[in-house]
Records
---
Amino acid sequence: MTGQGSTGNVIAALCSFFIPGLGQLLQGRLFMAVIMFVMAAALWLIWLGWIIHLVSILDAAMFTPRR
């Protein structure tokens, strides 16, 4: 995956659309994937999980790896 707007990031964003954190996991960012998943699960209990769900999608789509 090369950077923002790449096919890999689009696929990661689509994965995060279905399961928050899955896109980050696909990009190899285990810690961020766990954070997104746990926060979304916790916030869905009070109907605010959609916020983290959107943040997860945007984070996966805009990720730029360090060189």
---
Amino acid sequence: MALFLEYEDVLKRTSHLQASGLNIAQVNTILAALAKQLAPVHNHYRWRPVLKDPKDEMVLEAAVNGGAKTIISFNLRDFKGAEKFGVEVIQPGNFVRRLK
């Protein structure tokens, strides 16, 4: 839940709203659709500290405890250390290209 709330906070920042061209109502619609697809991940073990930012640590812990193989982020530099857990970090554009 904490990670979802972090995503909500980030998506509703003025700078992100301006960059995306979305308004709060549209972001709320996207978040509601996303919430329906999510499965809770129980953190059986906290892997901290590995990364510099505690909010990034939350993402890494969810990925490791949830068995994710990939984290998709523009912020590759702050996720150095994720590879220790077998989690690859790639940028969104590279991920989309892989899907093709």
